[in-house]
Amino acid sequence: MSALKSNAVVVLSLVVVRLQSALYSIISDCDETYNYWEPLHYLLKGKGFQTWEYSPEFALRSYSYLWLHGLPAKVLQLVTDNGVLIFYVVRCLLAVTCALLEYRLYRILGRKCGGGVASLWLLFQLTSAGMFISSAALLPSSFSMYITLATMAAWLNEDSRTAIAVTAFSGLIVALCLGVSRMLATSMYYRAPMSVLSDLPPTDKELSVCYGKEWHRFPGNFFLPPNYRVRFVESSFTGMLPAYYDETQNGTQIVHDYFNDQNMGHPHMLFELSRCDYLVDFDKGAFYDELSAEPNYSVDRKTWSIASSVEFVQAEDIMSNYRPRGAIAKVFFDRLHNDDVIQQIDMTTWYTMGKLPRKYGSLYHHLNGPDELTLEWLERSKKTSGRFWLQLCHEVAKLFLNMFMTQTDINGFLKRGSMFILSEMQFDQFLTAGGFFQHRERQSALSVCDIGAGDGEVTLRLVHTLQQKRNWQVTTYATESSWTMRNRLNEKNFIVLENLNQIHQADLIVCFNVLDRCFDPHVMLSDIYESLDQTGFALIALVLPYSHYVEKNSSHLPLRTLLEPWPPEKRLTVEEELEMFFDVLQAVGFKIRTWTKAPYLCEGDLRQSFYWLTDYVVLCSK
């Protein structure tokens, strides 16, 4: 029985690590995209890029290898047409195949060479950066690796002669550190080309997504939503770019005059920049130079607006500025750099307004901060985020949990992600300024409900303020969509509701930074209004500049945006966005009592001590 358990652990370890490779390893070479994934996309969906190697005139590559993977993908296509899902299922099939072949070799190594040798081999396999990258790659070299694994296992099974490699203990440690470091680096710092396309909105008309200097990082049409086409615009690269297959039944047999074997570029592959609907570019921090062959387009705000941006390590700058190369070393370096920047911040600007909105400026209440309790929270966050091994365990755990849990669920499970907005003293000052405590002298009890309460720490600060002010008996309700956070709220004696409709005549409803994260913010505001007592108040916070993201919606878009129309025809100032927000509240029926500016602080991680956004907190009543 113990042997069966041991084998099950080995199989599970190999399968889990290889599936992590399938889900989180990047496409390391554009050859994999354009010579394998794109032709496969064409075979499945009738659309994809063709390289000169596949042109019938040269015919350097065969479609046989592609159909080996295309057949299961074709079967899957009968169930779903989701390109991203098909991409990852094919990758997972490759990963599981590799894991099973590795397990067979492990068993034979254990029988022929002993359990110690087999265990060391397994350890190297699980922590090898090369295996992490290659095990799920759609490349003939990876297929050859599978064959080699099968051949070696068969050979060892027939022949008892074995070559035993002896490695110094220090070499083992170095190999383990380098392997894990490389795996973390590729997953954490270089995923931008594969993730940025997920923010493209659904569309009914054909739109063009253009690539210039970043053409070699395009992950493939599997990552594009329907009705999008990738186009290439002129850059400093003068070689031959891929072109779309002729989308007919015999598209693979048509000879095109724009392919050649001299790597000479052809105008057919290029698209006019002015006709692009979206442009994927790498912001290197340079100024915009319209005469450059590869200008920094994101700085040209007259022509382009940033729809989405994802962090990506700029390797050239790392080397030129003597930054470390290892993933763990980079984390330390970034942490020191980010914390140094944080030290220079004037934290009083978190609470001050440079200019007040015209319509609602008289209702602004200035908070003095950061106060002592805020600074204590920041210091605790620095200490917690500075525990390297704890934070490293969190990062590794997130790699596994991301497969089936949202980021909020993961934070709840790992007991991290603590938030801070106002201290007890600041809550007291703000509620007093807005008239919350007036005419409540005779009340002995209060009912408070926090929507999207998270871990409940912000709510507990507010409740403590109320209890200290009037010695009220406070009944605390909360709603939360994350099941792990609900468990944490139950541990803190919150009454957790399924939805806001379960509470009526609440004295105070709190909605901190949920309106830009929910499916329909207008319905939520109406529900808040209806759930309040006639003398009830609502405490609402919104991060500005406004941006929406719905975590549990596949498109991450709300049914209706809070601020409408959005995006606006022209870029708005924060003061203009504030006025739009307050107008929305008044349209529901709320009366604005007072408002203020405060930091929305979040517990830090390996990269920096803490994070912050700019919050605008509003106290309103019926």
UniProtKB/TrEMBL annotation:
Segments passing through the bilayer: 85-106, 118-143, 163-185
Gene3D superfamilies: Vaccinia Virus protein VP39 (3.40.50.150)
Signal peptide: 1-22
Main location group: endoplasmic reticulum
Membrane topology designation: Multi-pass membrane protein
Cellular component annotations (GO), alphabetically ordered: endoplasmic reticulum membrane
Domain of life: Eukaryota
Keywords: Endoplasmic reticulum, Glycosyltransferase, Membrane, Signal, Transferase, Transmembrane, Transmembrane helix
Subcellular location: Endoplasmic reticulum membrane
MF annotations from Gene Ontology: glycosyltransferase activity; protein-L-histidine N-pros-methyltransferase activity
Name of the protein in question: Mannosyltransferase
Gene source species: Anopheles merus (Mosquito)
